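Hi there,

I know you've been waiting on this one. I reran it after we fixed the sequence typo, so this is the corrected version. Both the input and the resulting structure follow.
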Amino acid sequence: MKTRILMMTICFLAFSDLPGLAQDMGTGVPWGGLSPSEPLLLIENFQGFTFFHSDSTADMGNSNNSYDNDGETVIYGYKNDSVEVPILGSANGKITYLFKQCAFAPTWKTAYAFKNSVENTPNVSNGFVEISRNYSSDPPTIQGEFVVDLRQIEFVEVIQWTHSSCGGNKRGVMLEFSVDDGTTWDTLRYQPAQSAYASSFTKDVETREKTFNDIYCDPSAYGMTWEDGIWAGNVMLRFGVCNGQVPRIHDIKIYGTYSPPSAVQQVGQPQLGIRCFDRKIRISEPADVEVYSIAGTLVRKAANATMVHMGDLPDGIYLVTAIAGPLMQTKKVIIQ
């Protein structure tokens, strides 16, 4: 069972409709507030990557493009790449990173931690991927992005992550999500910082409801921590520039459910996905659905459905059977 934490719900009810919250000068969102209950499937700090950056220290600003000695050939300070990393605890599961115009510094501190010989903000690791911005320059720059493909993970519960700025505080970041294979993208967290801080918000993946937060990103050059609930499957995430400010992503932790593919799935047989969170059962495609109690009593029945609401039923274990044409899937879920 994937259940949103009561504290999160209370916070939404209490604050989501209140404009102009007090300016938040802290270091972001502390980890652990969402109390993730699913297994940890990814821990990334980019310390295993090869250095690729135009600068020699962390506090010299963003990586830059330059001209070679001939005055015509561009030497790029960012590059495109793709990397596969294993899902923790899995023999074959993979998470794919897609880098477009990104730089890498696997050992560097945040800019101001290096400058002032202090430590990063707690939970912000040394090492990062830096994402290019598009701004007027010679040689020209190209807008970058960093995509994390989590579609092999059946259910993504929570992401904990960190970012810093290239030099100067009050610099923001944006994180987007897609649940339709990258066809469309929506904002999960928008943190523009500086004078635009009042428009900062997060968005609920299911309802698309905005919750404003007024986080100022004041210590961004020392690092900021973030925690966002996703509670969905077929997820892709995209980190990017916010309000023209170059972000550095230091850490990513993903909590969720991963089910290794069966032998049938490995040879290409399609499967129905059944997952449960927020007291709703979701089916990956329209199907005829029957839900039984642990005692064998039929408690729900729906035709050509992708969602079955369970909010009025008591907590407990239920057995879900879904049939869509030749496909059939049965799964045990927990409502609580």
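Quick highlight: The longest strand covers residues 280-293.

Best,
R. S.
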